[in-house]
Amino acid sequence: MHNTDDTAPTHYDAILLAGFGGPEGQDDVIPFLRNVTRGRGIPEERLEEVATHYRHFGGVSPINDHNRQLKAALEAELKRRGIDLPVLWGNRNWAPYLSEAIEEAERRGFRSLIAIATSAYSSYSSCRQYREDLWGALDSSGTHGTITIDKVRQFFDHPGFVTPFIDGVDEAIAACEVDFGAAGLADEVEVLFATHSIPTADAERSGPRDLDFGHGGAYAAQHNAVAEVVMLAVEQRRAERANAEPLAPVPWQLVYQSRSGAPSTPWLEPDINDAIAELPAAGRRRVIVVPLGFVSDHMEVMWDLDNEARETAEQSGLSMIRVATPGTNRDYVSGLVDLVLERRDGVPVAERPAMTTLGPWPDVCRPACCENARLGFKPALAGIAP
Ligand SMILES: CC1=C(CCC(=O)O)c2cc3nc(cc4[nH]c(cc5[nH]c(cc1n2)c(C)c5CCC(=O)O)c(CCC(=O)O)c4C)C(CCC(=O)O)=C3C
Ligand SMILES: [Fe+2]
């Protein structure tokens, strides 16, 4: 829609998988949380509370293993397609850090990298912060001027990311058809698409500054657009199974989770637990929770959905199905490789796949894209300077 990028073919020496990072033992938990929240104004009580989530699992987040598995899956897919591109991996908040991956690139003589951030949407936390930390990794490894890093576009509406959610929701709905009947299900079941809450001030600044995306900015608009596409595809499959029997659509809404920050700072709402608690009054007996904002079943999914949201559902007398994240799903992995190839080969924007009218998102972020409302701009890669 607003991609003005130069689509010239570009040579890359390697792929850089840029992850969030997570602790891998009890001693890592507090230093990891300090890394994540440095300068962010997160209250101490919130940190202690979140530490207990990690402690409950031995101080280990599964997220680093997810990225090890994703790296291996990317390598296998590249090999299968005969593409000779090594994959490096580094994290924003825990070892192996991005700077270590850059140092490895330097040692191995790689000069031109294409980054994949494990985050699909636009906002400070889900896009710009990765770009800033990539810039910072070039700084701390002294490789500005030696190594260049491009980054694949935000892929919220790429079929590789969306298809696993369509398949997952479809499977959940098919299970509900067995329990509630093909038509009755629309009264008894509701789909909640869950994503990470962010401060509303950051949400309003998400995406290019010169475009107005309404309440919640590009961040909420992208999630709503993807949820709509998922439900459209799912309704079509329902209709095919129903053999022309007319069906009311299954109700759905976008909800938010994992709010932190000071209580006085507004964050995107409704919270998933509040939304679940309202469902019985609307006659619902089951909730399908779709972690649309996440690429793997990491701590925010394991704790905030599988633990907290499930408990809220039980207390509300609802059964709950939680749909899987893309993880190392075949379509997702092959979609990520496609995103690299569209840059390497300079695929024209008009030929790039995008399942919503918001995309294909630009390769290079617009000036003043995804500003942090409190901290303003730090230098960042893969964008036009504000
Ligand atoms: C949009 C978004 C994503 C999705 C995009 C993406 O995937 O990148 C995401 C992912 C994740 N968030 C994660 C963990 C944490 N996020 C925190 C804090 C925050 N997240 C925020 C936003 C997001 N976060 C924000 C606005 C804050 C407030 C502080 C700040 O302004 O930066 C805190 C501090 C404690 C707390 O306040 O909860 C923790 C521990 C993990 C790792 C899980 C694991 O270990 O398995 C992952 C994948
Ligand atoms: Fe987070």
From TrEMBL:
Group of enzyme by EC: lyase
Q: Reply yes or no: does the keyword Hydrolase apply.
A: no
Is NADP found in the keyword set? no
Where does the UniProt entry say this protein principally localizes? cytoplasm
Q: Where does Fe(2+) bind?
A: 196, 300
Task: State which Enzyme Commission number(s) the record gives.
Answer: 4.99.1.9
Q: Tell me the CDD domains matching this sequence.
A: Ferrochelatase_C, Ferrochelatase_N
* Molecular function via GO: ferrochelatase activity; metal ion binding
Please name the pathway: Porphyrin-containing compound metabolism; protoheme biosynthesis
One Gene Ontology term of the biological-process aspect is: heme biosynthetic process
Q: Which Pfam families match?
A: Ferrochelatase (PF00762)
Its UniProt entry gives the catalysed reaction(s) as: Fe-coproporphyrin III + 2 H(+) = coproporphyrin III + Fe(2+)
Residues bound to Fe-coproporphyrin III are 61, 130
Record's GO cellular component terms: cytoplasm
Going by the UniProt record, its keywords in alphabetical order are: Cytoplasm, Heme biosynthesis, Iron, Lyase, Metal-binding, Porphyrin biosynthesis
Subcellular compartments: Cytoplasm
Question: What family does the database annotate?
Answer: Belongs to the ferrochelatase family.
**What does this chain do?**
Involved in coproporphyrin-dependent heme b biosynthesis. Catalyzes the insertion of ferrous iron into coproporphyrin III to form Fe-coproporphyrin III.
Write down what this protein is called. Answer: Coproporphyrin III ferrochelatase
State the species of origin.
Microterricola gilva
Q: What is the lineage of its organism?
A: Bacteria, Bacillati, Actinomycetota, Actinomycetes, Micrococcales
